[in-house]
Write a structure and sequence with these properties.
The protein is about 65% helix and about 0% strand. By secondary structure, the protein is mostly helical.
């Protein structure tokens, strides 16, 4: 049933396509110059590295959490893992909406990224030495909070360091934008 619904939705959904805008009155596509070669800056490479490392560490932490809790707890691992993931998810949401909005502002991005990275690094070191469930889950939530706060900033830095002509689809040139 789910497959049938998905097939119907795939066929019924309008196609997403991009058309070149027409020049005024002529009905021919405009003659825009070709895109210039992409020359990434050092800041772009750093932002991509931060984004990749944060995502990789998030996945590593999520994969290893049940294994570590099994070694610490020994029993009721699914219950404790569920609580840890719930608290980590709530902390991540708070990190994006509260921590990121309050501390990751333009002009303070470098300091915020360095401080968060240092705290996360220290928290990972502490996480490796904990032998009790409650502090382990609290440390997991702290790491989730700070990692989630770093993701929008890294994403923003990537966008700011990408030339405007290479930033995805120009909304003015799509058929989906009905106002033009």
């Amino acid at each position: 049933l789910t497959a049938a619904v998905m097939l119907y939705v795939a066929k019924a959904a309008p196609k997403d396509s991009v058309t070149r805008p027409l020049t005024k009155g002529h009905g021919k596509p405009d003659d825009r110059p070709a895109l210039q070669p992409f020359r990434p800056t050092g800041q772009l490479w750093l932002a991509v590295l931060i984004f990749g490392v944060v995502l990789a560490m998030q996945q590593l932490l999520r994969i290893t959490l049940p294994i570590a809790l099994r070694d610490i707890e020994g029993h009721d691992v699914p219950g404790v893992t569920g609580i840890a993931f719930t608290l980590g998810g709530l902390a991540a949401a708070a990190g994006v909406f509260v921590v990121s909005a309050k501390y990751f502002r333009v002009g303070h991005l470098r300091r915020a990224l360095v401080v968060c990275s240092a705290i996360i690094g220290a928290a990972f070191l502490v996480l490796g030495t904990i032998h009790a469930v409650t502090p382990y889950v609290v440390m997991f939530a702290l790491i989730s909070l700070l990692q989630a706060a770093m993701v929008p900033t890294a994403n923003m830095l990537i966008a700011f360091n990408t030339p405007m002509a290479r930033r995805g689809t120009d909304r003015k040139s799509t058929r989906l934008n009905s106002s033009h």
